Amino acid sequence: MQPSETAQRVAVAHVWPEIEGGRFPIKRIIGDVVTVDADVFADGHDAIACALRFRHQRERRWNETPMALLSNDRRRGAFVVDQLGRYHYTIVAWPDPFATWLSDFAKWLNAGNDIRMQLAIAAELVNAAAARARGADRTTLRAAAARLGAADDGAVAQARDPDLQSLVARYADRSTATAYDRELEVIVDRERARCAAWYELFPRSTAPTPGRHGTFADMERRLPYVAELGFDVVYFPPIHPIGVTNRKGKNNAPFAGPGDPGSPWAIGAGSCGHDAIHPDLGTLDDFAHLLAAARALDLEVALDLAFQCSPDHPYVRDHPEWFRRRSDGAIQFAENPPKKYEDIYPLDFTTISAPALWEELRRVVEFWIGQGVRIFRVDNPHTKPFTFWQWLLTEIGRAHPDVIFLSEAFTRPNIMYRLAALGFSQSYTYFAWRNTRAELTDYFTELTQTSLREYFRPNLWPNTPDILTAYLVDGGRSAFVIRFVLAATLGASYGIYGPAFELCEATPLAAGKEEYLNSEKFEIRHWDLDRPESLREIITRVNTIRRTNPALQADVGLRFHPTDNENLLVYSKSTPDAGNVVLVAVNLDPLWVQSGWTDLSLSALGLDPARPIEAHDLLTDTRHRWRGPRNFVQLDPAVMPAHIFRLTQAPEAR
Amino acid sequence: MQPSETAQRVAVAHVWPEIEGGRFPIKRIIGDVVTVDADVFADGHDAIACALRFRHQRERRWNETPMALLSNDRRRGAFVVDQLGRYHYTIVAWPDPFATWLSDFAKWLNAGNDIRMQLAIAAELVNAAAARARGADRTTLRAAAARLGAADDGAVAQARDPDLQSLVARYADRSTATAYDRELEVIVDRERARCAAWYELFPRSTAPTPGRHGTFADMERRLPYVAELGFDVVYFPPIHPIGVTNRKGKNNAPFAGPGDPGSPWAIGAGSCGHDAIHPDLGTLDDFAHLLAAARALDLEVALDLAFQCSPDHPYVRDHPEWFRRRSDGAIQFAENPPKKYEDIYPLDFTTISAPALWEELRRVVEFWIGQGVRIFRVDNPHTKPFTFWQWLLTEIGRAHPDVIFLSEAFTRPNIMYRLAALGFSQSYTYFAWRNTRAELTDYFTELTQTSLREYFRPNLWPNTPDILTAYLVDGGRSAFVIRFVLAATLGASYGIYGPAFELCEATPLAAGKEEYLNSEKFEIRHWDLDRPESLREIITRVNTIRRTNPALQADVGLRFHPTDNENLLVYSKSTPDAGNVVLVAVNLDPLWVQSGWTDLSLSALGLDPARPIEAHDLLTDTRHRWRGPRNFVQLDPAVMPAHIFRLTQAPEAR
Known about the structure:
The structure is a homodimer.
Chain A: H1 3-7, E1 10-16, E2 26-29, E3 33-42, E4 48-56, E5 63-66, E6 68-71, E7 74-80, E8 85-95, H2 97-110, H3 116-132, H4 135-149, H5 153-159, H6 162-170, E9 178-179, E10 184-189, E11 196-200, H7 216-229, E12 233-235, H8 284-296, E13 300-305, E14 308-309, H9 314-318, E15 334-336, E16 339-341, E17 345-346, H10 354-371, E18 375-379, H11 386-399, E19 404-408, H12 413-422, E20 426-428, H13 437-449, E21 458-460, H14 470-490, E22 493-497, H15 536-548, E23 558-561, E24 568-574, E25 581-587, E26 594-599, E27 613-617, E28 622-626, E29 630-635, E30 642-649
Parallel strand pairs in A: 2-10, 11-12, 11-22, 12-13, 13-18, 18-19, 19-20, 20-21, 21-22
Antiparallel strand pairs in A: 1-3, 3-7, 4-5, 4-8, 6-7, 8-9, 8-10, 14-17, 15-16, 23-24, 24-25, 25-30, 26-29, 27-28, 27-30
Helix pairs in contact in A: 2-3, 3-4, 4-5, 7-8, 10-11, 14-15
């Protein structure tokens, strides 16, 4: 053993946040405060000094901020993340003999002991600090040590001078300091990674007349509609050329008819692949024009990263080594027995040639970043290796910390959560299939009250081009309203696939199937946006409520409140300072009126249960005056299946 | 990036047991099964093979055992620890393409697909395994591949042959295997580390006549008494020479009178220190004789390791560098403001000379091991650095894995638990101060239901020479019975300081103090073991019950049962196979009769609530026949404040 080993007396343990033993970063938004707790303790009864260290990945030197004692051994420190990218944080702690001395000194004084020897010890400690100090501080410390050494009344006053304490602390002996054995990380994203309303649509279905392939110019004309609905992000399925070999027909027919456009996810044709634009949509210039038009409307465009190829993709010809071959020499098309995707070849991420493939895919991402895209929805990331995503997201994040990646993984929880841990900014969830009060409460408690809240940012979709749930099929227009309000208020981020959603499209391919009939994946649709059943008005209203209520812009302030009717889900969201409190009540039954009593934890929401509460229903713009935690709720799905109240303390009536 | 990085597709996560991210070992007893769980998953839908690897610290090569799928991604494997010392364990996992193929194959068959291509793929996989095999296995695999390649009816049968599956698995391609990134440890102790009844006494108080200093020969004559009471370990406070400088008098008086023997914890006089025996007790030969006599009675002797010195210890003269000096040059005696221990100098474990001190203390431990001692109670380990204990316990454990260390740390939980994590075999607890039902339930739930159960082995002491609790002072003889039954049945390990305990000695130094009046720490006492209030009979009975009921020999099978009277504590202990079920009911009120109803979770105890239960009270040897979970308990502390039932399923009455 070495003397240095023998000298470290402080232990740093149970650091929080720390994901899976420090293997994965937590996530924050620029401007956030990162609060770090730890148990810090040593043998004996010595006082301990403790600092939280942090630095941006581009900084070399640690910044330090003290960690204050909460109770027993628990310490807390905090720092603000004011730059995008990754931060590192860790903890350092060391014995503080002067603080120990001060605490003992008070006890010796109380016990009426002779304190001359104690003051001599203090003088020694202060002189030792002086030896580590320079300039004026050294002079000050030397003088203080001399005053302590005098062991008179002035010495006692000197000992208790808080300025002396902080000066001695500044020149602490850190030679025996314990550095926590892990450096932890924070990924700092921009605000849109935490909160955004997404709208997915197929640009090819935006032509003004039926039967025509929509263009980026058509899509540009659709943007004001999306902006007026109040969305932040408009997301397009792949915009690349589509293969012709084994192209699928309408409703996933094995063979395409003459006019069938094929699935946009069967990417690549001729010499054009993932960095090209489908000629029927337009050119790169048109795309740039579209991006600018979106920007002018405060809309951001998200593209789809689907790392797979049609049999006609140039990679197939130029890089046959990137594909797995069968024993007969043919490339194996995608399959998930007994399903077959003959129009798609998966890439093989783990062959000896994988490094070149990985670099090429990074180039593709960089290409679109170069065009001005900063948000990507990633198709099926769970069918590519974790190591690939960890590498890609880290590399892109280093160069472009403003880029946001949404993980479209519908698979087992471990895999979904691991992808988030590896760096995906947001993740699709099981929301589409969580319908009952118990299901919703359990799932959102897991997402917002466990360690997942530190790194898994849910993005809630009531539908997607692949998902038309039985709840929507069976529940009619009210079901769409219910699922919309839930998505937009349970999740700081949510999305709909439209216009199918707002037009309440609800015909499945076949009974019991989750696929849409006449899915836009395989054909061009023309939508009448003015259909009377359109949810346009309520969508616009809820998105406005989201923008004006910061409580709805984060996931962590969620709290469920008990009701005596299990068809009623009641929850609140509040900002950390309780300055904004939103209470949502939803009738989960799309067919019948439901009513019941709810018990609100008012004081947990920062409201005084003894004083009246004003509940302003932001959906209907009606105001109610409540007294106490127990309130009656009745919701008729045929009228409006939800309340979204803003709660404030009302003035006492005179 | 390197190809090797790109190829690892399997993730191993959430391994259990794993203490604080793998920093600390778990503990087991020789012969135990170590069960290890983990989430093991990969991208895509490939099947995964997974093995638990383990090796004793003296072995170089890993042993492997497969980890079976529990549900979703959760795997479980197990191994038996059949040697003392440390084991390492970790996990390795790799994709299993043949298992994937088999699962897909079944689906293709069901879907009525042409399976010739599938069989060709299988032939390829089996041939690849053949290339990795040798001898007869290679021939077998080649033949199987040929049969698969034939793609006829025989090929389908061949594909499903379980022998082929295991042969292919034996020659799996592990080139892309993922090794879990931590190697975890198990400390394997002998049975006495898990379960023992300790009896502490001062050998100097065992002389047959009052006023004489007891000797090892006297102590040897006391051994049959201790053995008859049913104890396993007899523990002596320090047996070394005691200093004269600043020796304390009776009742901790600052100055000793002429005949005062001093505190045994003020170790060292003249040329004799921690490796010497107090001359009034006897010689090393006498000690060896005593050890042999104990062994003959199946009693094991535990010594006290108190790493501190009297001012007369030879270290003070020979190694002044091992002590901290004050500014006036004097060595600082021990203090805990405002308390002073002028008869004791603490050692300074963190000076530049610490390595030599550490080595010397190891020599002391080795010396007593050389004399035949295998159990040490360690005095105040929390006042010495964690790094010292980690080093000492690891070093001694490597050379003498049968040695047991009991940590006497009464301090904050983090520190007590950290000492256990560093390697102490057992630990003192807060048991002495946990009196109410809520206190006992909370504390023992924490100790036995959280991760603490993996490494913190409690040893419960109702009293020690330093601790005479208010509960014992105020409660009379019944209080002693209650605390004894609780200690001996809540804890697989417990101890009493006798004869003070069994003779119900309950006079404190002063009202409200926890110190004994006329404490044996400062004077020699003569005890009349035949006093009528002696707990001899009940102690003997309870220790017999412990020996014949394996459920009481472990801590993990503890379960609390609700009662409607908070003065009644009802708990059960059962073996993992539910072959032995012990139910304990204790009246926590030493003064009054208490009664109430209890609800037993019978099915959790492996008992059928629908059939009659025989409850055999092992304390009173009475038998009761119960039906159903709800039972009435009434306990009169003046008669017997506890039941210890053995529960069995009774035959149905005819």
